[in-house]
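We now fix the convention by which a protein and its fold are recorded. Think of the row as the fold of the chain written in a discrete alphabet. Here is one such record, which you should read through line by line.
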Amino acid sequence: MSCWMPGCPALSTCRGLAALPITCLERAKDLKTRLGILLHKSELGHKTGSSSKLQLGSRWRDSSREVLEWRESFDQLLKSKSGVNAFHTFLKTEFSEENLDFWLACEDFKKTRSKTKLASKANRIFEEFVQSEAPREVNIDHETREITRKNLSGATSACFNEAQAKTRTLMEKDSYPRFLKSASYQDMTKQATSRGTSKRSHT
């Protein structure tokens, strides 16, 4: 608005601003700048929120697909971190989680590169899971137990292979089918299927 006309409201505004100390004007500019930054952040926050919702939706789809893949094979279950966690929770209800814990300990053991650590880890695993009357003794035959004991004298990353394979077979033939029939897994598959159905209905 131009302030050349006498009595123009803008003219009094201009005069008023001119009469203000410079520090007041600087503060006003500073406030305006800060308000602009806050508004910009608010818009960014809104965009980020939308983005995180999309990512969450993507994660839900991935986890739904994963849950359904667990029933395809025992290997598929063991490949999935969340699958292993769900299976472990189920095994606890049957008081047989030591089988999976032993299998996982063997998997970790195979990644050990230091020979010193290899020997100490081997003894620890043997004492906890394999030897007779071990605190968390796994269900393997006497022959396999003795073979594993002999392997400890020259511990290599393969010294638990036979015992681990026996334990894996036991879980696959015995615990895994019961897990698939369990109420907890049935609930997970229902949720996964319903999420998949709702996604298709929205597309």
In short: The chain is about 80% helix and 0% strand.
